[in-house]
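Q: What would this chain look like folded?
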Amino acid sequence: MSSFNRLYCDKSNSVVAGVCSGIAATYGHDRSLVRLVAILSLFVLPGITFMAYLIAAIVLPSRRNYLD
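A: My prediction, written as structure tokens:
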């Protein structure tokens, strides 16, 4: 059986909506590094990054709902 990590928003460690914190927790990366990459990508592809973050914040379940 394969191990499957489901992506979620981590509201307990969030700065804005918990998307970067959830990505970091799901894939085992540092939250600060994921946030830095997100901020840098805002300068390179601002429209796409903003829309992707907004959609993820709306669509992804919160960690509390995911663990229940």
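The two ends are 22 Å apart (CA to CA).
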